[in-house]
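Hi,

I'm pasting everything inline rather than attaching a file, because the server keeps stripping attachments. The sequence lines come first, and each chain or strand is labelled.
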Amino acid sequence: MPTIIGLDVGGGKIACVEGTAAGAILGRSEVASPAAEPFERALPLLVGLVRERLGIATAAGRRVAALSVSVGGPLQIAAGRLINPPHLPGWHHAPLKERLAEAFAGLPVRVEHDGNAGALAEYHFGVGRGRKGLRHLIFLTVGTGIGAGIIVAGRILHGASDTAGEVGHWRLSRRGPVAFGKQGSWEAFSSGRGMVLLAAAMFPRRWSDNTPIRELVEAILSDDAAANEVVTAAGERLGQGLALLIDAFNPQVIVLGSLAVVLGERLLGPAKRIVAAEALPEAVAACDILPSALGAGIGDVAALMAVLGDDAEHLAQLGITRGGS
Amino acid sequence: MPTIIGLDVGGGKIACVEGTAAGAILGRSEVASPAAEPFERALPLLVGLVRERLGIATAAGRRVAALSVSVGGPLQIAAGRLINPPHLPGWHHAPLKERLAEAFAGLPVRVEHDGNAGALAEYHFGVGRGRKGLRHLIFLTVGTGIGAGIIVAGRILHGASDTAGEVGHWRLSRRGPVAFGKQGSWEAFSSGRGMVLLAAAMFPRRWSDNTPIRELVEAILSDDAAANEVVTAAGERLGQGLALLIDAFNPQVIVLGSLAVVLGERLLGPAKRIVAAEALPEAVAACDILPSALGAGIGDVAALMAVLGDDAEHLAQLGITRGGS
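And the predicted assembly:
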């Protein structure tokens, strides 16, 4: 069975993995992301990472079937062209897929939005593994910002212009912190950035807008009283947004990544309490709210999903049968 | 080509139609809804309406292929069993599909949620007619309450327990009017009921919570200054909810029924202004916001859609090829 090379292109780091059709990671390398450099100057770094992985695979006698890329939006997914990703300021309008396809002639290249790729990773290889009858899953990134990958009837909801799932942008209140240019947005309350802003507003003598999220997370995990108030408030706002998702989509599962994995019930407990009070009881009863089963490894698996998340027929054309789930 | 009998079961009236596979209505009768009576006592009225239509069809030499029912939720759609529809207080837990199938042996019976049926009507025979490449459409009822029928990739999003689209239940604000038991919900601001509550709160000397919506609509349509303030406020809240839908679903079209058809730009103008300010520009640019093309006739066409909205293969089993679109 051939393998897949995956690129996880983030604002902080770029990881390159080789993985199997069952979502197992065979090898991995990582570099700091040249996010502020112009794309054409950063491209050789990407190409070098992939070339190195290809060399390792070939030396081990494995055939690589395709190159899969997971990257933050907004982007045109089928064309693999970035629009104006805030975490990659030098890469606006970068023809990512086209350039990679030029560099690796004969190797099919697929690109997917990182939120969607995360949803596909959990659906096929994470919380969805062995869960029969699973068709509707929402994956929520809770990192610097908030974004969703939405699976409806087994397929990613891309929408009319590939921006479906931009729910971090939802305004939950006319007041509240400002993050990513929008006051009172979901990610202004409940993302990593939002939690810092909330902490600074609630305890201005102790924290500021420039407090590193790591410092706040450490205080939360050590059961600091003030930090617990912050995570409870962020969790309640998280629940407010989850209730909107549940009433609209009636999903079977909502999976939360990043900070939700690290903070666990400290964040999800208050969120579930608000969900129970706010959303339709029938829909609440039908929906499991879970931290990511792939945890810190989700980015690596997600990097493979632009390829592995595709329909069985398309995969068969690449000589791949997806394992797992 | 055979025809379909459709039942539109509302809290105020029940309509029974005969329609073609192209969505044309051949005949129609209507009675007041026995909404408060126990279902088993109301059932003979439904059966009588259908029997009358079947008789007319047979006398004209037409074969009726199936019985299609559109009814408000919550309900179990495949089973055709109502749960606790607020507009049909006597019909809780009614086995609607089962009883109709018993009464008309040999006639396939399908049941759909009225919001979903409206979405399918507009998708195939309304704003979607002749619109190539249409795959993602949201239909929003703006009647007594607010509900949505959501079409993703050409199919209704039913969700895990058939409650997807219950977005009237979304809370937009911690303050504001209370409707259907929830303060500050979308339908507490922007539905017919919500507009009356808003009018009573804004102009308590002139309107009360018991003002008929008809009186308010007449004042709006006659360009009364106070009524214009009310419809503008309701439209802005409508836009707030539409912006959430657009960021989450990135639809190609949102179609609005009932009051949005009657009030037109008086309601949709303020709504679109808020959408442009609140939702992602890429998603706003990709989405048309339109009043229902079927207008007052949408209930009749929707009554056929539990059958006509089905996949081509299933329709073929009934000897039907859907016309239109």
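Residues 225-249 of chain B form the longest helix (25 residues).

If the labels don't parse on your end, tell me and I'll reformat.
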